[in-house]
């Protein structure tokens, strides 16, 4: 009885009552899970010389990570996971504008923290694969583990259109899934259908830019590689790096 009472008191003390803080923590954890799985699949693929993964397994892991992330945070924050989706909700007047910068910052922070975790998890593998150099280009580059880079042939205009169309398709699909007037998805299976949507976009629109679709997913890890030692080259258009997974 004493231990049960102690646990109840501890739960009461640790319980977060502020709704915004609860939503931010849920969003942070959901994005962390999303990026931990996504980037780990990419790290496993790259550092194993694609003997323990390929672009298809990386895309599949990225899609499944969306499913897990929505289950993690959906009940509290709605699991936006993506500033582009949060912005869409604001434009549709389903999300307050004042929350948008808060969610965008939290989503980026979650991606940044997940990048550091993946770096620790694959620290030995990354340094072994790269021969002791954190390169942003060349045959042993490792920058594309964390962020996506355009294919060598891609122009800036085509790259911009690629992201507009891919992200637009993602938002359109999610809105269709959420629309109660539309053909319904069985309750509780919405995250599974969203994961299938993400996977379909990745395997059909991923060759140009690696299919990031998510500003926080791209900027958070890119910022991490900048501060972790890859340097300012991660923010520049460099040939030979266009292989990052979604």
TrEMBL record:
An example Gene Ontology molecular-function term: urea transmembrane transporter activity
InterPro entries registered for this protein in UniProt: Aquaporin-like, Aquaporin_3, MIP, MIP/Aquaporin, MIP_CS
Catalyzed chemical reaction(s): urea(in) = urea(out); glycerol(in) = glycerol(out); H2O(in) = H2O(out)
Iron recorded as keyword: no
Family label: Belongs to the MIP/aquaporin (TC 1.A.8) family.
Assembly, per entry: Homotetramer; each monomer provides an independent glycerol/water pore. Could also exist in other oligomeric states.
Name the UniProt record assigns to this protein: Aquaporin-3
Species this chain originates from: Chionis minor
């Amino acid at each position: 009885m004493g231990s049960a009472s102690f646990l109840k008191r501890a739960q009461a003390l640790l319980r977060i009552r502020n709704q915004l803080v609860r939503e931010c923590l849920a969003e942070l954890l959901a994005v962390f899970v999303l990026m931990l799985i996504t980037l780990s699949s990419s790290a496993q693929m790259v550092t194993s010389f694609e003997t323990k993964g390929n672009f298809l397994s990386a895309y599949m892991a990225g899609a499944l990570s969306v499913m897990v992330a929505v289950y993690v945070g959906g009940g509290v924050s709605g699991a936006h996971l993506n500033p582009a989706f949060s912005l869409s909700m604001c434009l549709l007047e389903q999300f307050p504008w004042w929350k948008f910068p808060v969610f965008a910052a939290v989503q980026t922070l979650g991606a940044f923290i997940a990048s550091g975790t993946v770096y620790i998890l694959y620290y030995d593998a990354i340094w072994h694969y790269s021969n002791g150099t954190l390169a942003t280009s060349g045959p042993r580059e490792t920058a594309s583990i964390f962020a996506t880079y355009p294919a060598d042939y891609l122009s800036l205009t085509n790259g911009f259109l690629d992201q507009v169309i891919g992200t637009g398709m993602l938002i359109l699909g999610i809105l269709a899934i959420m629309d109660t007037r539309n053909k319904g998805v069985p309750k509780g299976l919405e995250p599974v259908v969203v994961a299938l949507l993400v996977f379909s976009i990745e395997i059909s629109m991923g060759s140009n830019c690696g299919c990031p679709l998510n500003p926080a997913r791209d900027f958070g890890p890119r910022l991490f590689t900048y501060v972790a030692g890859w340097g300012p080259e991660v923010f520049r258009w460099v040939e030979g790096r266009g292989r990052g997974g979604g």
